Amino acid sequence: MVEKGKVLLQAEPAPLEIDLRRLAVLMIDMQNAFVSKGGMFDVWGFDISTIPRVIQPIKEITGAARKKGVRVVNLAHVLYPDTREVGPMSVFWNNKVLQSWREKPEWRDKLLMRGTWGAAIIDELKPPADEIYIEKQRFSAFAGTYLDMSLKTFDIRYLIFVGVATNICVESSIRDACHLEYLPVLVSDAAAASPSNRQEASIGNIKQCFGWVTNTKEVLKILS
Question: What is the dihedral of CA 120, 122, 128, 130, to 10 degrees?
């Protein structure tokens, strides 16, 4: 029997009872740099073929959440041109972005620098002006941001994760959510990995240690 005031989300490794009053949807890095043709990942030669497929599921989930009164939190990876926020955290990441900025002036609007097309959330998923929008400078949405404080302000405990990339920023955020004692859920068909063959590894990690995995259909059921 489901506890009064909660709904049952079908998920793996087991169904999860959720209090919708304490639920938030976190949309991770749905920015032109990662998602769009001509964006940073694309010009770097990364395979982004599977990424556009998550746009419609995310649109459906965020739309249903807003109608239900469930908070949607929009997160975007945004940097200064000298990537001062990153430092030596990732030699590849830091050097790749900096090299592109310095050596390819024609790419500058495609990267993650504040105020560029690349840093902007894609038009299809632009959040309303009154919705929470948080810029992050690390892979995890919790590292160095006010996300944790904001969620606790609204007494949020259950987190539904959508966005990109499953194996990098989404998984990093879910790991931290778990460590901070939230109950995180990955929506597997509303998140995409880069490269795509790493999707299943992240799904396995999350189910084994860090949270739950479900799909768009099941999320829409609890939001209906």
Answer: -30
